[in-house]
Amino acid sequence: MDKKIKTAVIFGTRPEAIKMAPLVLELKNRPEFEPVTIVTAQHRQMLDQVLELFDITPDYDLNLMKPNQNLWSLTSDILLQTKEIFEKINPDIVLVHGDTTTAFASALSAFYARVPIGHVEAGLRTFNKDYPFPEEINRVLADAVSDLHFAPTEGSVQNLLNSGIKEGVSSGALDNAYEPGRRIYKTGNTVIDALLYTVKKGVDLSEFGLSDNLKTILLTSHRRENFGKPLENICDAILELVQKNKDIEIVYPVHLNPNVRNTVFNKLSGVERVKLIEPLEYAPFCALMKKAHIILTDSGGVQEEAPSLGVPVLVLRDETERPEAVECGCVKLVGTNKEKITGTVQKLLDDVNFYNSMKMAVNPYGDGLASKRIVDIILSRYIQQ
Ligand code: UD1
Ligand code: UDP
């Protein structure tokens, strides 16, 4: 093969960067590929933390983030700016990730440009268009316009098949680039590639001043559907828990979204044994997950990572598109009802058998080779031309 496969990799937020970084590194190692890294910078600081860790310098940085941005302007900015780049670089394939506005708008833009699209972390679903908002619809739309679907688990493969994306169906955009054929591949989740890359790096947590005599409960919450009352309920649950249990401390790296920060700082600033800290770089965050006694989160990525580290996870949502770890027993959905949260955390603190039944190292999400698999699949499709 003389001509290299020009592969545009697009991402914009922290979780996409973490999960796409191993793929960028893999593409860079393969002589058959010419990777072009495009960041929308839907996130700025939280994206830059990840780029630095993985030593990735983007070829194009759209620098789109605005303070307290809205979905309309973000979506249209991404559409218009990626159009210019696609016209300039003329990629052979565009890779997008997951369910953010960057993923959906970049996929739509590539579709308009008639460029084949590979969707990494395809097929996750709650089948409820409002939860999570707007991510459920973002991923449905990204899947609808994509040509290759890199599904992390068997469940996500089935979701794609059930939504009418059939293996063996040819796609117009791909007819010239690939032999018509299979479109859905089970690859594992690249989050495990990123986690394994990162936990190897030693991290010193001493700067956080965590006490050896206290049990650390790690908290993250940022979902749009939890803004307002649900997030207030979560904070009230935390207040009750630290008051009742003098042997716990809460560590909460607070997301930079002002809708999160206003509520959280109003409710929890200055509370004893509640540490509100800035979003952590990925390596110390992984070390903190490993050290935690319990994790409370509404994050998607954390639900996938923490089970590998053997820490019980309570998910602050009523539904999840990641049922695998719930089925294994180490993740439970507790929603945002204050009593449900405090009751379940208290049971974990008081009932050793219950705690041990959830504290198991389980990893249904991958083996660390997802990026390699994705690159092999793309290569095999191009070699068959
Ligand atoms: C976005 C994604 C969400 C994902 C989350 C991961 C959408 C619609 N939402 O939500 O799916 O789970 O990222 O964290 O795609 N901000 C900063 N600096 C940063 C990042 C954010 O200041 O590095 C602030 C800005 O004021 C920004 C706001 O947060 O306008 C919201 O960012 P946005 O990406 O629109 O939404 P998230 O809630 O971060
Ligand atoms: N994360 C991080 N620092 C933090 C909090 C989270 O590096 O302070 C990582 C976490 O390990 C996971 C990812 O960010 O890989 C999840 O991002 P987020 O919760 O913002 O988004 P989601 O996964 O819900 O889309």
Alpha-beta classification: alpha/beta
> Span between N and C termini?
10 Å
The order of strands across the largest sheet is 3-2-1-4-5-6-7
Q: What's the helix count?
A: 15
Q: Name the overall outline.
A: globular
What's this, in brief?
The chain is built from 15 helices and 13 strands.
Question: What are its keywords?
Answer:
binds uridine-5'-diphosphate, alpha/beta, 6-stranded parallel sheet, single chain, 385 residues, binds uridine-diphosphate-N-acetylglucosamine, globular, 7-stranded parallel sheet
Task: Describe the protein.
44% of the residues lie in helices and 15% in strands. The chain has helices at 14-28, 45-53, 71-89, 101-112, 135-145, 154-162, 190-199, 229-244, 258-268, 282-291, 300-309, 324-328, 338-350, 352-358, 370-383, and strands at 5-11, 33-39, 60-61, 93-97, 117-120, 148-151, 184-186, 215-220, 248-253, 274-277, 294-297, 313-315, 331-333. The strands form two sheets. The protein has a seven-stranded parallel β-sheet, with helices on both faces. Helix 8 (229-244) links the parallel strand 8 (215-220) and strand 9. It is globular. Bound molecules: uridine-diphosphate-N-acetylglucosamine and uridine-5'-diphosphate. Residues 13-15, 42-46, 65-69, 71, 99-101, 134-135, 222, 256-258 line the site of uridine-diphosphate-N-acetylglucosamine.
Please write out the topology:
Blueprint: E1 5-11, H1 14-28, E2 33-39, H2 45-53, E3 60-61, H3 71-89, E4 93-97, H4 101-112, E5 117-120, H5 135-145, E6 148-151, H6 154-162, E7 184-186, H7 190-199, E8 215-220, H8 229-244, E9 248-253, H9 258-268, E10 274-277, H10 282-291, E11 294-297, H11 300-309, E12 313-315, H12 324-328, E13 331-333, H13 338-350, H14 352-358, H15 370-383
